[in-house]
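Running co-folding for adenosine-5'-triphosphate.
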Amino acid sequence: MIELNQVNKIFSAKKRSVHALNDVSLHVKKGEIYGVIGYSGAGKSTLIRCVNMLERPTEGSIRVNGVEMTKLAAPKLREARKNIGMIFQGFNLLKTATVYENIAIPLKLTGVPKSEIDRRVKKYLDVVGLEEKADSYPAQLSGGQKQRVAIARALSHEPEVLLSDEATSALDPETTEAILELLLKINQEFGITILLITHEMHVIQKICDRVAVMENGKVIEEGRVIDIFSKAAHETTKKFMNSLFPEDIPEEVLMSLHQQGPIIRLAFVGQSTGKPALAEVAKRFDVYTNIMSGNIVQLKNEPYGRMIVHLQGSVEQTEAAIAFLVEEGVYVERVDGP
Ligand SMILES: Nc1ncnc2c1ncn2[C@@H]1O[C@H](COP(=O)(O)OP(=O)(O)OP(=O)(O)O)[C@@H](O)[C@H]1O
């Protein structure tokens, strides 16, 4: 649905130029929620703005639903953009217009007939749960409600693609949850493909099918959320993972435990995979298993858990226990000593 191939974007200023996107390729499939995560300056905003040509890439190809966006002249580009909704961190609502008008005005500007405008405004205000706020002004709404209006406005053009530029970054945790639930609902109910950018791993965890991690304008890691969670290879990705699964075990503790046996990180999918396997280890081997930290989070489609476990016992027994866990399908990684 969205295909970026070898996209480069260079911002040239007098003194220096910035390579904001460096050979970026990614493919977002129809109907999926695809997240791009990275720290500030990684190139996320530039990437998402290139998809609807708010920013023109210096090089490369960008296709949305088969249409090569980089080659479109103004009238055709306007047409293609109708198929791509966008929501922003700052909501971008018209302050002097009511909620109803905020949705109706852009529809009017694109030539939608009056009766159809009324139908769509009502329908999408209902979808986002704000029917009663039609006559309110943005200043009378909470941040979460403003974002709901922005989502209704984007949906009212009935796009196939929704771009989300840090849509929950200005919201408190509870409101963030509610907006993420809403994005999930519109993805499932309307089959809208969502490309979002974020600096919060929680957003990726909660609603994304696939993720790309960006750094210095490059995609450094990409894949299914479940795979990236289990096998994050890059240091930056691991740092993002640490925000969900903090592993701040003091060095002194690590050092003394390492002398008594290996410390391992277990990752498991589903409610029950990890703990029964550990219980089995305790039964089958002369190994004492000590869970040092653990957390389970809900991914879009399944729960995912992670544990740090210290195995105490002879080298032979602990190695056999690790081999058993691997055989059982648990993802096992050794935690290095200090
Ligand atoms: N219009 C511009 N002119 C010059 N440089 C720019 C422009 N827009 C972005 N950049 C630079 O491109 C790089 C990537 O910026 P971008 O905003 O895409 O990153 P980001 O990951 O979205 O960061 P943030 O989360 O802080 O928004 C940065 O070094 C930034 O300074």
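Result summary
The radius of gyration is 24 Å.
The first strand starts at residue 2 and ends at 12.
Job closed.
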